Amino acid sequence: MTNRMRETPQSIQAWLASLIPTPTVAQQIQRAGEEWDELMQTHSGTPEELEEVADVAICLISHPAIWAAVEAKMVINRARSWQAGENGNIYHAVTPDA
């Protein structure tokens, strides 16, 4: 059995920086789009589907600026009210402008 490293956004960012010294946000978004296309070609519920989801996530969290945006957006999301839609997904409650 191999010892697997516990990954964090920072460990993934360091790995990417070792491969591409100055990756840009645009490069990572483009690569995530390519991985998204692969995801859309997989069959739902298969191990390959989760692998492709992981590839998309890795592309997006591997840039520090994208991860910083995720953290900032979570501050907003945690302050919102959420409700379940008819499809089972959750959506933030829409409030009328004051």
Short structural description:
By secondary structure, the protein is mostly helical.
Explained architecture:
With 98 residues, the chain is mostly helical. Helices cover 59% and strands 6% of the residues. The protein contains four helices and two strands; from the N terminus they run H-H-H-H-E-E. A hairpin with a 5-residue loop joins strand 1 (82-84) and strand 2 (90-92). The protein is globular and about 45 Å long. The chain starts with 8 loop residues before the first helix and ends in a 6-residue tail after the last strand.
Q: Indicate the low-confidence ranges by residue numbers.
A: none
Order of helix and strand elements from N to C terminus: HHHHEE
Q: Largest sheet at a glance?
A: 2 strands, antiparallel
Question: Largest beta sheet: what is the strand line-up?
Answer: 1-2
Q: How helical, in percent, are the residues?
A: 55-70%
Give the beta-strand count: 2
What keyword list fits this structure?
98 residues; mainly alpha; globular; 59% helix
Write the layout of secondary structure elements.
Blueprint: H1 9-19, H2 25-40, H3 47-61, H4 64-79, E1 82-84, E2 90-92
Antiparallel strand pairs: 1-2
Helix pairs in contact: 2-3
